[in-house]
Design a protein that fits this description.
Number of helices: 3
Largest sheet: none
Distance between the termini: 34 Å
Number of strands: 0
Structural class: mainly alpha
Order of helices and strands: HHH
Shape: elongated
Number of domains: 1
Length: 50
């Protein structure tokens, strides 16, 4: 039980960190890596299959 809570907290922190880093990129930089700004939440969560 406690271990699953810790994993969930870590996953949420990772998501927030990824989201912040991707949001700092310009539209040009995002295009260079093949994603749109609207794709950022899916990329940050690891669910992007682009």
């Amino acid at each position: 039980m406690l271990l699953s809570i810790i994993r969930a907290i870590r996953a949420y922190r990772d998501y927030q960190r990824n989201l912040a880093e991707l949001n700092q990129l310009s539209d040009r930089e995002l295009a260079d890596i093949g994603i749109d700004r609207s794709d950022i939440p899916r990329v940050a969560s690891g669910a992007y299959t682009g």
